[in-house]
Amino acid sequence: MFKNFKLVDKVVFGRGCFNQLDEILNHQRTLKSQGIIFLVDHFFKKNDQFLARIPLRGNDRIIFADVTNEPTTFYVDELTQSIKNHSNLLPDGIIGIGGGSTMDLAKAVSLMLTNEGSAADYQGWDLIKVPAVYHAGIPTLSGTGAEVSRTTVLTGPVKKLGINSDHTVFNQMVLDPELIADAPDEQRFYTAMDCYIHNAESLTGTFLNEFSKSFAEKSMDLCRQVFLENGDRAEKDDKLMMASLFGGLSIAYSQVGVCHALSYGLSYVLKLRHGLCNSVVFNHLDAYYPTHVSEFRHMVDKNHISLPQNLTESLSEAQFDKMADISLVLEPLWENALGKDWKSIMTRSKIKELFSKM
Ligand code: NAD
Ligand code: ZN
Question: Which residues surround ligand 2, an ion (CB under 5 A)?
């Protein structure tokens, strides 16, 4: 069976296009609702200039997303409940403005406003049955591809796994490169390396096809222009935003690989961010992605990034086992990277040995 991939309904791209948000949202407004909710990354809490540009009307309000930690099912449930408690009416929309974490929270909350129970009940594939409230994603960091993907990655009580469904996909994305301009260099780099690694894993995987290859090759080329060439920062931000989108489109029709499988385990136990964990893991994967790891190290050096070392030094055996458990359940990732026979190549002890080097 071929994947019948659901795309985001509408996309606007360009410097300053955030100013069009009011007009875009006016088409969604109804008389019977609690207004539109802007779920904004808490990073912008004190940025009055930016907050003043959010087109609040009527009962609209801003809720700041606390993304100190990556999204949990518990936090999604809490946010959803607080919106339900506010009024018997649903909002006309949930607009996620922030990095991958905030966009994922916006997706998850929009789904849980119309689907009963806890977000943890829906971690998996196609478990969501009722369409979400209208939701839009507006990235302020580029790399994850969360703006285009059909998942929202959540840490739950027992697993770190996305709510993967066609209903998860945003109705609208607003891609304004001006919004990523002020991200600190390290954060910008780690989030962008998520994109570089999406491409590397897609291009070298056994699930590769022309759809995924076309997007990944262009995305890779853009990553190289941003992190290996000299040039204007604004132009680079435009490129990075497109790289993220194309990387997301590539893996949507293929899959990620060894780095992501291990990174999920590492970030679950160490409570560190996805982009950072990916970078730490990728640096130890010469055996699987030799040319890409070497190019990645070149990017690390050229951009003066100091990768953390020895993160797993003081972890217990039980924690190593937990990391291996989380990684091993991600079967499609292993199969993409190593083929159908992956279990004979990637054993639990091999995984633990790799983790011990990080
Ligand atoms: P993030 O959203 O976790 O944010 C990282 C930090 O940067 C936070 O402290 C945030 O407040 C801050 N920040 C956000 N925008 C900023 C800006 N413009 N300037 C300065 N600081 C800013 O980072 P991320 O790397 O974009 O996203 C990682 C998350 O995305 C993880 O939770 C991961 O699981 C998820 N993810 C989702 C998908 C998907 O397809 N849904 C894919 C990959 C990753
Ligand atoms: Zn990723």
Answer: 194
